[in-house]
Amino acid sequence: MGTLNEGFLGGFSGTLGTAVGSKWKRKNVIRSRPPRKRGKSSESQIANQVKFRVMNKFLRPITDLLNQTYRKSALGMMSGFNRAFSDNSIRGAVIGEYPDYKIDYSRILLSKGSLANAGAPSVVSNETGKLVFNWADNSGINQALGSDGAFVAVFLEELNHWVYQGNIAMRNAGTCTLEVASFTGKPVQTYIGFVSADRNRTSESLYTGLVNVL
Questions:
Q1: pLDDT of residue 73
Q2: Cβ atoms 89, 160 nearer than 8 A
Q3: For a 10 Å CB count at each end of the chain, is N or C smaller?
Q4: Which CB contacts under 8 angstroms, 24+ apart, belong to 124-127?
Q5: How far apart are CA 134 and CA 175, in angstroms?
Q6: CA 97, CA 198: separation in Å to the nearest integer?
Q7: Which of 213, 137, 203 is nearest to 174 (CA)?
Q8: What is the pLDDT of residue 2?
Q9: The sheet that has 27-32: what strands, in order across it?
Q10: Contact 92, 178 (CB under 8 A)
Q11: Whole-prediction pTM value?
Q12: The dihedral formed by the CA atoms of 162, 69, 119 and 105, expressed in degrees to the nearest 10
């Protein structure tokens, strides 16, 4: 608490709001109050910060994709990326014990919505630097149309690098090929999802497993 020494316009000692009054060489001095030092973060806070960094490092390279596939799910001013980040955090996609956290790729969602995803999707690599996605055409189920566009995404943990392509094929094609020459000879995590032609409906993405690229 501050003390006024000579009336309202005089000097004061102590603290008043953000000001600190004192005497220096018989003069009244007023200086700003130094910011309060933050207390040390708790162990749980530090652990959550590490989890945040792990998820951010994983999803940040596909921000453009997530802003499209989560566009209809985002609330208010939230971006698609932020909604995807929140959803995957809630799903417990970061696993392990502090400080050794890692991504559980099977829990990751790259899109969310009521549109039907692919029927029985699978991924194979029968040719060097290429991945072939196959699925059953399930047009007519949950508003699914043959014109819905497939998007596929592939992640290489070793390099923390993604390759993805939107609208790579229509649902009724039942197949598409993704060029991943930079991943040749490496194991990759794979995903598939669908977006309607008018971009107003999106499926929940599916994890299509770990595949070794020839």
A1: 86
A2: no
A3: N
A4: 124/211, 125/211, 125/212, 125/213, 125/214, 126/214, 127/214
A5: 4
A6: 43
A7: 137
A8: 47
A9: 3-4, 12-16, 19-24, 27-32
A10: no
A11: 0.81
A12: 40
Task: Please give the order of strands across the beta sheet that includes 187-195.
Answer: 161-170, 149-156, 187-195, 206-212
Low pLDDT (below 50) residues in the chain: 1-4, 7-9
Architecture of domain 43-212: Sandwich (2.60)
Residue whose C-alpha is closest to residue 178's, from 121, 119, 139, 140:
121
- φ/ψ of 140, rounded to 5, equals 100, -10
Amino acid letter, residue 4: L
Six-digit token pair at 85? Answer: 């980040």
Q: How far apart are CA 210 and CA 212, in angstroms?
A: 7
Fill in the amino acid letter for 88. N
Q: Which regions of the chain carry the CATH code 2.60.40.10? A: 43-212
Q: Give residue 147's pLDDT.
A: 98
In the chain, what are the helix, strand and coil shares in percent, each to the nearest 5?
25, 40, 35
Instruction: State which H helix or E strand residue 59 sits in.
Output: helix 43-59
Which residue matches tokens 């910060």?
49
